[in-house]
Structure formats: structure tokens, C-alpha cells
Design brief:
CATH class of the largest domain: Alpha Beta
Distance between the termini: 54 Å
Protein name: aspartate transaminase
CATH architecture of the largest domain: 3-Layer(aba) Sandwich
Keywords: Aminotransferase, Pyridoxal phosphate, Pyruvate, Transferase
Number of domains: 2
Cofactor: pyridoxal 5'-phosphate
Number of strands: 12
Family: Belongs to the class-I pyridoxal-phosphate-dependent aminotransferase family.
Strand content: 5-15%
CATH superfamily of the largest domain: Type I PLP-dependent aspartate aminotransferase-like (Major domain)
Catalytic activity: L-aspartate + 2-oxoglutarate = oxaloacetate + L-glutamate
Helix content: 40-55%
């Protein structure tokens, strides 16, 4: 039987670019010791107090169907948090609870794009972005950012690609680059969205991981509350990746229709998980700081290691749990470098090319192992890069 074009072309007919990651996992399955600096999975687990609330709620009977839009408690909690942090009036009617941020990204594009519309996204990008847009029936179109601009988007370059576009997807703090978009950048993007009548889909799942500067939600900019869909999640802020609890914040009319979509697709999020999320979001900043602090500390360690050499460059690591390293001095692509590093030192990093072509000649490092092993692995990476650069210079 013939499968639909939509499902068979989610990856655009090519590789998803994660071959190094899959090879590292095969090596581990075969019993080899590999230092994994690949995916954004915390090296700490969900806090026991959150699990205790999840258990209490489940044992109290909140295991049946939950309300599809989300419980009133969690929708009110998310709304209050967003309003406090952004100053934008927000109620439960602006909030849909989703099974994680990925489901929210898909739903947002279903709301913003008709089949055949162009959905814009920025390169480098989180790996699922283009497939998510294609899955919603839209045409995924990348807009390049540049390493020399610290991967801050350029509104003029977005405008050049905006013909036929219905939406623009942005992500700040950014995965994979670790860059936090400036107020100037976001203001230019907001101006562009108003001028071109675009929906802005703002992925803000790393908003609690800011190391330098401040996070600004574009929904808070003038005229943007009615054309912005904000994606949030418990995954990164509270180390609840497996709990699959996220949300969309947007205009009431859009949320009403997105609730209808959820009724026909996900049919909501388990109530005991929502109760645990409500607890976590109101438990104070300490829980969020406990999750964020290891990455803040490892960023400082990385800067110390990188300051002692001059081969590997660091894109400003302002937020999130990643470093984007420039290894172009080695003369290798990010993919070749990552494969060679895995072969020679059993250290697994993600090639920049896994996230598009704008980060070619870079690698992404996840700060997701303990401090000592992380610092040692990064030191080894730098020494390996220096040897390759010397060989390239001698040729």
C-alpha cells in the first residue's frame, strides 16, 4: 500500500543528520565506554518532591481522562507565571496544555499554516523543526544565520525568504547555539511579522537557563500578543523530559481551535502529571535553580578550558545547556571532526551540520555529564583539534 507523501517526506527525503549520535549509541550497546555530549538530557532526574506529588495525585484517583485543554489548575498556573514574567495579561483561556513541547510545536504550525503555506525557520535549528512544519502540511523553508553574527537572526535575510510564508519559528535561548536573541533582534523580527502578516511561533523551552543577558518573550512586544504562539515545557526547566508536559500560550481564538485539534489528536495530558507540573511551577525558584545550576557551572568550566587554547572558538554561550564550538581551524567539517573524535577518543558530540548548514564547521556539545568528566572531555577535544589544525597547516 502507498503511504502518504506527508509521512514519507518528514525528513525532506534525506538523512536526519544524526548519524554520529546513532553510531555512538550502537557503540555503547556493544559495551564500549563512550563519553556522550550529544543530546539535551539532564544528568539529574526529576526532583523527588515532584515525583511525590505525581504519586499522591495518581493514588488519589487522578488517573482517568483529564480535561483536554488541561486542568484549570495547571492552565491558571501557567497563565499566572507567564503574566508575571512578561507583563502581558494572560488567563487560562490563553493556554493549552500539550504532551510536551514537541506536540505544542506541531499544533502551533497546524494553527498557523494551511497546506502549501511556507513555514519559515532559522538555520541552525533544532532537529525536528523542518519535519514538524512538513508534518503540518506546510513547506519548510530555512533562513540562514551566520556564525560571524553569533547566529543572531537578520530581519533582512528573513524578508528575502518570506514570499508565501504564513509563519516564522524562532527559538531563544537557542538550541543548538546557546545564543539568546537580543531585544534589538526580537524587535526587528516583530516588526517584520507585523509587516508581512506572519504568525510568530516562539519556542521558549529554555527560558529558565540564562547565563548572560535576559530572556525577552516576543509576545510582550507591541502588537505581538495577537500574532504570537509561545511554546513552553516542563522538560528543561524541571528535568521532566519523560513526563511530556508542555503548553501553548496564544490568542484566545487560536487556543479555542487548538483545543479542538487536541480533542482529535492527543486528547490531553494525564491529570497526575499535570498536578505534579502545577506543584513544580509553584514550588519556588529553588527547584528551577537546582536544575539550571550544573549547566551554569559547566559553562564556566568550559570557558576556562577554552581560554587556555586558540584553536577552538566558542559562540557566545548565553543560555541553554549547550556550547557551539567553531572547529573550522582544523580544516574539517563538523561531521568529519565528530566522527574522528568518536573513533579516536570515544567522545560523542553533535556535528553542526546536524542542525543545518549555517553551523557547518562547528560541533555542539551538551553540558550533560558531571563536571570532572565534562572538563576532561572538553580538554581532550581541544587538544585533538589542535593536532588536526597543525596537520592542516603543515600540508
Amino acid at each position: 500500500m502507498k503511504l502518504s507523501h506527508r509521512i514519507t517526506h518528514l525528513n525532506g527525503g534525506g538523512s536526519d543528520g544524526w548519524d554520529v549520535f546513532y553510531r555512538a549509541r550502537r557503540m555503547i550497546a556493544e559495551g564500549q565506554a563512550v563519553t556522550e555530549l550529544t543530546i539535551g538530557e539532564h544528568d539529574i532526574r526529576t526532583h523527588p518532591s515532584i515525583l511525590a506529588e505525581m504519586d499522591r495525585s495518581a493514588r488519589a484517583g487522578h488517573t482517568g481522562y483529564a480535561m483536554v485543554p488541561g486542568t484549570d489548575l495547571l492552565r491558571d498556573t501557567v497563565a499566572a507565571r507567564v503574566q508575571t514574567r512578561t507583563g502581558v495579561p494572560t488567563t487560562r483561556h490563553n493556554v493549552l496544555i500539550t504532551p510536551g513541547g514537541q506536540a505544542a510545536l506541531y499544533a502551533a504550525h497546524m494553527a498557523a499554516c494551511d497546506p502549501g503555506d511556507v513555514g519559515l525557520y532559522l538555520d541552525p535549528f533544532y532537529a525536528t523543526y523542518p519535519g514538524t512544519i512538513r508534518g503540518a502540511g506546510a513547506v519548510a523553508r530555512a533562513v540562514q544565520t551566520r556564525a560571524e553574527d553569533a547566529f543572531q537572526p537578520d530581519a533582512a535575510m528573513i524578508t528575502e525568504q518570506a514570499e508565501g510564508a504564513a509563519s516564522l519559528l524562532i527559538n531563544t535561548p537557542n538550541n543548538p547555539t546557546g545564543v539568546v536573541y537580543s531585544r534589538e533582534t526580537l524587535t526587528e523580527i516583530a516588526d517584520l511579522c507585523r509587516e508581512r502578516n506572519l504568525w510568530l511561533i516562539s519556542d521558549e523551552v529554555y527560558d529558565t537557563q540564562i547565563w548572560d543577558g535576559a530572556h525577552l518573550s516576543p509576545r510582550a512586544l507591541p502588537g505581538m500578543a495577537d500574532r504570537t504562539l509561545v511554546v513552553g515545557s516542563m522538560s528543561k526547566s524541571h528535568a521532566m523530559t519523560g513526563s511530556r508536559c508542555g503548553w501553548i500560550v496564544g490568542p484566545e481564538e487560536a487556543i479555542e481551535h487548538l483545543i479542538n485539534l487536541a480533542t482529535h489528536t492527543t486528547y490531553g495530558v494525564p491529570g497526575f502529571i499535570q498536578d505534579a507540573a502545577s506543584y513544580a511551577l509553584t514550588a519556588g525558584d529553588e527547584l528551577e535553580e537546582e536544575v539550571a545550576t550544573p549547566f551554569r557551572r559547566r559553562r564556566a568550566l568550559a570557558m576556562q578550558v577554552l581560554a587556555r587554547q586558540n584553536t577552538v572558538g566558542l559562540i557566545p554561550a548565553q543560555g541553554a545547556m549547550y556550547l557551539m564550538l567553531d572547529i573550522r581551524a582544523t580544516g574539517q567539517s563538523g561531521e568529519d571532526f565528530a566522527n574522528a573524535l568518536l573513533d579516536t577518543h570515544a567522545i560523542a558530540v553533535m556535528p553542526g551540520e546536524s542542525f543545518g548548514q549555517a553551523a557547518a564547521g562547528h560541533v555542539r556539545v551538551a553540558m550533560t555529564i558531571d563536571d570532572d568528566r565534562f572538563a576532561a572531555a572538553l580538554q581532550t577535544l581541544c587538544e585533538f583539534a589542535a593536532r588536526l589544525a597543525s596537520q592542516t597547516a603543515a600540508e
